[in-house]
Every structure is written in structure tokens, then in C-alpha cells.
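lol ok so funny story. i was supposed to be doing the assay writeup but got distracted and ended up predicting the structure for this chain instead. priorities right. anyway since i did it might as well share w the group, maybe its usefull for someone
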Amino acid sequence: MASHEDIRRILAEDCSKEEVDTEAQLNNSIRFLGKWRSAVIQNILIRREGTQVLSGPFKGMKLSDDVWWSKNDRITQMLGIYEEHVLERLKDFSTQGASRFVDIGAADGYFAIGMAYSKIYSKVDAFEIEPKGQNSIKNNSAVNQVENVVSVFGEADYSSLQNLLSEDIKTSFLVDIEGAEYQLLDEKMLLLLSSCYLICELHPWLVDDGYQLQRKLIERARKKFNVELIKRENYSPNIFSELDGLSDEERLIAVGESREKNMQWLVLTPLQI
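and the output, tada:
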């Protein structure tokens, strides 16, 4: 984590730049300070509580230091509220008969390992294109003693998913691939997945013509699925005793997820089950 002197230097350099959009410059500085303060709060919590999930379905799961992607998400993961609206839907799918969970864009494996650790799903497949992420998932699976439940793969494509779905197991998918979802979920792929449950995090601003691509994806999906768009709606820092003693601003930072926008997730359920 950057020192106070580092923070002061970075902010001074940033504010000395001749920017046309001063408001954007200030907003960037505010986001930077928020991330830095989040790291400070994270270290306080780790010293006090240790590195494990403290509440929710994944309670007790160990959060390894071996992370490459989700460093800014550690507080909400510790509190058990990271993307909790997504987690609740995935839990619902398991109660409707899905026993296999496939995580495409698994990053450090929070969801993949959590689903195995909590026994919400009995079989977990994690697809992560980055070798660092694959190693992180394998290591963190071993730390939580679920390495026999979690299988780790590289890039997900039609062939790999077709092989996976050759087994007659009702399956839930989580897709979070930073804008590549519009290419992956084409007509052919949606037909392949049409008997499955699927949640996809949407990133239209990360790709050219992203909002048009998103509209087309939703149109394609409606032919095979019931379609719903959801957002994260609840920010309730005051329910956590672990945050007592922090200021109002710090508690809000603690339950934030450092997102640039109010994200949406596409929820797809089969038209006929």
C-alpha cells in the first residue's frame, strides 16, 4: 500500500497537470483517495479479524493473499456482501436443481471457491484466461480444501463448454469477462446454454458500440430465456459491528466496490425447465 507521502506526491502531480476538464481531474483524485482509504480500512480489518469471510453463505472461507485481480474487493468479500445480489440468485438456482456451477472469468476464484466451500454446488468449473488467475484459484482452492471440487481451465469457448455440458447435470453459469460477453454469447452459444441458468455482468462502456451490442445480446437472449436486468441496491454499512469506530465516510467506503458505474447484470433463466 502507498505511504502517506506517496499519496501526497501522486495527488500533487495529478493536480499540477494542465487538464481541460478540471472536474474530471478532481473526480479521478477523489476515486484514487477512496481506493487508498479502502486499503487502509482493509488492513485495519485484517489485523482485527484475520483474512476470512465473516458472514453470509461463504462464512469461514479463507481469503488468501495470493490475489491478482480482486484487491479492491477484499473488504466486501470479508464482510460477505461482495456482489451479494448475484450470490443470492446463484443460491436460488441451486435450490431449483442446479448442482454444477461454471464461473467464466473467475479472477481469483471468490465465487468458484465459495460455492464449493459452502457446498451450494457439488461441482465447480472455473474458467480464467490469465495464468496468474489460474494459479491463484488453484492455490486458494487448496487453502480451503476444495481442490477436489474445483476444476480450473483457461479460456472458455463453444467447444470447451459443449464438452462440459455433455454430462447431464443442471448447470448455473456466471460470466464476468470485461466486455467479451457480447462476443461469447452469440446465437450458437445461447442455444447451447438454453437449458442452463446464467448471470452475466455487463460492460458496454469497455467496447466499441457496447450499448448497441448489449441491446442485441438481450434481443438474442429473449428467444431462448426469460430475461431480467438487476443491480446492486443495498449499501448498509451500519449492520456490521466490524465497522464500528469508523466514520460515516469510512463505513460507506468499506461497503463500496470501487466501480466506475452503477453496474447491471443480465439474468437468464430457461423458458422451459
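The first helix runs from residue 4 to 16. Residues 4-49 form one domain.
back to the writeup now i swear
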